[in-house]
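QUALITY CONTROL LOG
STEP: pairwise intake check
CHECKER ROLE: data steward
CRITERIA: each record must contain a sequence immediately followed by its structure tokens, with no blank fields

ENTRY 1 OF 2
RESULT FIELD BELOW
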Amino acid sequence: MVADLPLLKAFFLSRCFDKRFCQMGIVEKYRLRDRMMRAMTIDGKFRATVIKATDLSNDAAKRHVLNPLGSVILSELLMGGLLAASNLSEDERISLRLEVAGDIKSAVVEANMMGEVRGYLGNPHPVPLSEESAGMKNLAIGAGLLHVTRTRAGVTAPAQSTVMLEHGNIAKDLTHYFGVSEQIPTAIGLEVRFNEDFSIRHAVGFMIQAMPALDVNRLAKEELDTVVELETNIIDMSRPCEILEEGGYIEDLMGALLKGKDYIELSKTPVDFYCRCTKERFLSGLALLGIDELSTLDGEKEELRCHYCNSVYTVTQEEIQTEIARLKS
């Protein structure tokens, strides 16, 4: 417990002006923090990840000034990115990039297994074209391509894969990607629920996968029974937000997902909308333009915006001249 105190203090200070959190005790605030939990069945044949991403989803919606439909779609993408990254190594990250015919135009999400995720929609204000919530999302995404890129530190060539979007549904299309590109039988579920003011009340997701050593085409009867049992669990928790509504947390989500199976917890990681952009990185990017291009920036200042987190950095003419002088030297 002592090792968690700095994180506990930082989390409390970040929430001290949030009325909803101020009504809770500090231990309760820490317990309900957004997290991702990983587990494996004792027999080693299935692994599962569950995630609560309510606060990071609200953070993303606020940063990008999303409308409710955009909030749902980006929230699901952010959770999908974290689920896809949950079994990577610490020096890897994954990128999900959508090119679609629907109203969001495009989307990009980057995540790693340490719980850091960032992303944006090409159009933050997609127009609802259906009266039914699932139809709204499907039409806003539409047909297109999902590009998945895995990058490892120190490795120059990333691993890339592209699949057609078959459903216009983040959970189903990620499930399709894992089955086609990685040949891993996978089930993914994502749900977002609103408050009356259209802030996100709950954002939760889960993923269960057969381990690579399990040949799902040649299952023994006992293994087949396990698959049927897990499929039943997934159907039973088709609305995972209900578990949070009833006061549950990610342990309860995992318990419902793997009900009837003994499992061990592998990790429990805080998750956040987190971008590594800095003004210094933007200045380094400007330097790549070269002296001639930089010399054409003759305004008093330039505003540079990060697509991922919507942060704006102001670069003065003096800073631009400093970069030009540095390049000349």
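ENTRY 2 OF 2
RESULT FIELD BELOW
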Amino acid sequence: MSSLPPPIPASRTTVDLARCFTFVTDDPAWVSKILIGGVFAFAATFLVGAFFVAGYWSRLLRRVAAGETRPLPEWDDLGGIFRDGLPIVGLYVIYGLAALLVTGVPAGLGFALLASARTGFRHAPDVSSILEGLGAVGFLAVYGVVLVVAFVANVLFPAVLARAAHANSFLEGFAWGEILAFLRTNTANYALALLAYFVASFASQLGLLACCVGVFPAVFWAHLILAYGLGDALRLQSAPR
């Protein structure tokens, strides 16, 4: 009979930033779990591994939100982990295509129109110079849009994934009313979760120093940090006060 998870201390209202970086090593089998995750992270470069990494990430977030003391899942249910990863990968695809449309289509149309205009006015140097100037301004505008989209993706998309993973539902990744409400009421905790992930991502680059074999487990570990931080934020949100 499983015991209830330990209650959150009444004094704790923010994500446990230190715990984000220590929970992995509290698991006796953490080395093997991270190495297996690194194998799937490497396989993600060929797409198929992405489903297992995403599914494991999703399970970890739910276990943290449920208050599991040792939340790292086992790798003994690959079929289930794969299924859990389907909503997460699907959201990456849908939102990725949307970002591509927002940035790529205007850029493509702009460059096509510019090339067509330059061809039509090749015998008019003054007009050609004006078009080149407009093209430069258009390029800067498109670059600015790309930066905005990238910022929004890095800041907001983890909340989308957290919502979908917590409910284990693809459609919950589009429940923007609830997602924005979560962000409004948990701004500080969400920021701490992202901070932990950015620090871990930077640290994971040191895996390159351990040759290419080490970088994939390090990248996998960094993603687990994000899952823990978001799961802890969700747990704090639902904890009675």
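INTAKE CHECK: passed for both entries
DESCRIPTIVE NOTE, ENTRY 2: The chain has one domain: 17-238.
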